[in-house]
Amino acid sequence: MGDRRAPGSPWLPLGALLLLAVALRFATLTTQSLWFDEAATHDIVRLGLWDMLQQLPHKESNPPLFYVLEWGWTRVFGSGPFGLRSLSALAGVLTVPVAYALGRQLAGARAAFAVGALVAVNPLLVWLSQEARSYALVVLWSALGLLLFLRCLDDERPRLLGWWTLASGLALTTHYFAAFVLLPQGAWLLWRHPRRRAVIAAVGALLVLCAALLPMLLAQRGNPYDISSGSIAVRLLQVPKQFLLGYRGPLQLPLGLLAGLLVLGGAWLLVRETDPGVRRRAAGVAAIAAIGLVLPLLAAVVGADYLNARNLVPALVPLLVALGVAYGASRRPLLGAALAAGLCAVSLVIVIAVPLDKAYQRADWKGVAKALGTTPFARAVIGSGEQPLAVYRRALRPMSYYTGATIREVDVVAVATGGTQGDTPHIPPVVGSAVPGFTLVQHIHTSSYELLRFRALAPVHVLPDAVATVRFGDRAPSIDLLPGGR
User: Fold this and answer.
1) pLDDT digits (tens, 9 = 90+) for 8-53
2) Backbone phi, then psi, for 44, in 5-degree steps?
3) Which helix (DSSP H) or strand (DSSP E) does residue 199 occupy?
4) Which of 138, 356, 390, 422 is deepest in the core (most CB within 10 A)?
5) Rounded CA separation 298/373 (Å)
6) DSSP state of 228
7) What is the pLDDT of residue 232?
8) Residues 263-296: tens digit of each pLDDT
9) Could you give the CA distance from residue 132 to residue 81 in angstroms, rounded to a whole number?
10) CA distance 262 to 381
11) Dihedral, CA atoms, 78, 81, 86, 92, nearest 10 degrees?
12) Which of 114, 62, 21 lies closest to 310, judged by CA?
């Protein structure tokens, strides 16, 4: 079964991995701007708890646990970027010791270190750990559930089944797509676990929980999504790329080819150079991940299309576990260590590059907020998107369509965006050249945002349509009001 009982303390290598995970997630936690989905989190967790729970079915697309925890978390650490994101960062850090334990459970100390290292530096996991959304938390619960599942296979005590049920329930109440990696685990336990009644009770409890979540899920189906706007085939091809390289980073083609070769090397080690018992267990974990990928694809094909790397992320840790076991438990330890080090190096290049270059980051609303500065008079802000910018400029509010406002300045803004699917960020072209009654006094153009500042000689009372004659892109822009002195 491999080096399951390798001598030596596990705490030193695990401690090093934890320090690395903390540094990669917390040191640059507020470097990137908040984006639209994080601004939505910001807005909803600032409500009272009961109001937030009532709004979740209408404004969000996930179960309630993350928002409840985030609500309490921001009451302690604040609702600024650090407070919003630090819960996810903590979840990302805690996933590392769980991954380490998974590797140790399957194949011993070397495999544990390889798995922990891959999880600590994975670009997508680092990115999601720096985001005020539910993805890092569901990865933690799903990984913990997988660990308890494996222990249930080795230890038939009902207590472990209870812990697996608890971890799985936490995953389900954090993100619906956790169900796709839990389904094969439940089926496996029903098939192989000798305590049949205990397993039926555990799986039954999860089915009851699914039934309880169903009304919220059905209510949230009517919420707007932009996931299905692209081709399923393209989004499916993006999944392995984003699982390995994240959304954006330097040298995507050469690093992608190199990472792919390193993964293929790990697959070869698993098939040809690993003890059969370890290979079977690692292949079982990989099969759980594969089912967690295939079932959402089938759902997308029949019309329930929510296919993207974010939603499939509960399958990422199981894949990294299988890969880390291949690297760490093969009969060619030096080759396995070299392949693991190579993949970690690729990941670190990307993770380090992202905070250093805005081209690889989320839309730069923080930069726009700083460029707007302060003025003694009120102004209209065209194209702000309102939500992200309002986190940095709290006084921003929609301009009344009927009554308008008295202003002296019109600021037209745009940020470079590439969505979250990895496409190259770009600023849409400007449409229109003049705002009636206002003169262009400043044009700021950077790689991450653009700002046109129009100013009148004296305050003018305007309606929104009168100042929206210049915009970036073809879509109708948001028209907001920023009071004087803000």
Assistant:
1) 566 789 999 999 999 999 999 999 999 989 999 999 999 999 999 9
2) -80, -35
3) helix 196-220
4) 138
5) 49
6) G
7) 83
8) 999 999 999 988 999 999 999 999 999 999 999 9
9) 8
10) 48
11) 160
12) 62
pLDDT value at 170 more than 90? yes
Which pair of tokens denotes residue 459? 């305050």
Distance in angstroms (rounded) separating the CA atoms of residues 294 and 181: 10
Give the three-state DSSP class for 46: coil
- Provide the residue type at 128 as one letter: L
Q: State the virtual CA torsion across 2, 340, 321, 272 in degrees, nearest 10.
A: -50
Burial of 221 (0-12, 13-18, 19+ CB in 10 A): exposed
The mean per-residue pLDDT over the stretch 311-337 comes to 95
Residue 248 DSSP label: -
Calpha distance 315→204 (Å, rounded): 23
H or E segment to which residue 252 belongs: helix 252-272
The Cα–Cα gap between 12 and 153 comes to 28
Residues forming beta bridges with residue 71, ordered by sequence position:
none
For residue 383, the 8-state DSSP code is S
Assign 472 to helix, strand or coil.
strand
Task: Write the pLDDT tens digit of every residue in 178-233.
Answer: 999 999 999 999 998 888 899 999 999 999 999 999 999 988 876 655 565 567 88
175: DSSP letter: -
Q: What is the pTM of this model?
A: 0.92
